[in-house]
Design goal:
Helix 6 packs across helix 7. The protein is 36% helix and 16% strand. It has a four-stranded antiparallel beta sheet. A two-stranded antiparallel sheet has the order 3-6. The longest helix is centred in the first third of the chain and has 24 residues. It contains seven helices and six strands.
Length: 228
């Protein structure tokens, strides 16, 4: 009886471990790849500070690569023990400074921004991507999803003019094949502005997919595309 009891305990333990592995391998459903327009960010915050490398290019920049669930919720801060290590992405620093700059004040070298994004969001994708793969995936997506070019090809330019929200979404959909999510800010004059664009990506961090759920847009029917 004792042997049978021990065997049952072992089987239960192994089953539990298997379930844990399955959960770890399937602990989110998709990514939001989020890019932000720096002109709108600066208007939203009423001020911004350029990183120590200088003023970023007049282009959309990466905000993050965020694991999400199909019900609209998301995991966060999944592994406090796996802290951000800048040395693990040393070969990506130049590209990150260009494509993933921080505009918060005071001026910084972007490390605090990258640390926040890895520890809050990146650690929740460890079943698919390690730290280097996570940041590399975001950089590759930035090359694949050229939002500024997509909009300019449709005649939508960062010239402080107003454009219909539908034309903005349609221009991006025509380029990537799927409807994007949008978030708008309101500047000090009460203008609704193009702020953040959400594109959905599969759990490998490589393939653009149709969004299982879109974030609430909070955009007016006409939105401004401010200069930067």
């Amino acid at each position: 009886m004792k042997a049978k009891g021990s065997f049952a305990i072992i089987v239960t333990f192994l089953a539990t471990q298997c379930l844990s592995v399955l959960c770890a391998a399937d602990d989110f459903d998709f990514f939001y790849f989020v890019q932000q327009w720096p002109g709108s960010y600066c208007d939203t915050k009423r001020k911004c500070c350029y990183p120590k490398t200088g003023k970023p290019a007049s282009d959309f920049s990466i905000h993050g690569l965020w694991p999400n669930y199909k019900d609209g919720s998301y995991p966060s801060n999944c592994n406090p023990e796996n802290a951000f290590e800048k040395s693990e992405i040393s070969d990506l620093i130049g590209s990150l400074e260009k494509s993933w700059p921080s505009l918060t004040c005071p001026s910084s070298d972007d490390t605090k921004f990258w640390t926040h994004e890895w520890e809050k969001h990146g650690t929740c994708s460890e079943s698919e991507l390690d730290q280097h793969e996570y940041f590399e995936a975001a950089l590759k997506l930035k090359q694949k999803v050229n939002l500024l070019q997509s909009l300019e090809n449709a005649g939508i330019k960062p010239n402080n003019e107003f454009y219909s929200i539908e034309s903005v979404k349609e221009a991006i959909k025509d380029s990537i094949g799927f409807e994007p999510g949008m978030e708008c800010n309101v500047d000090s004059s009460g203008n609704s502005q193009i702020y953040q664009i959400f594109v959905c990506v599969d759990t490998s961090g490589a393939e653009i997919i149709e969004c299982p759920v879109l974030p609430r847009s909070r955009c007016a029917s006409k939105v401004q595309f401010p200069s930067f």
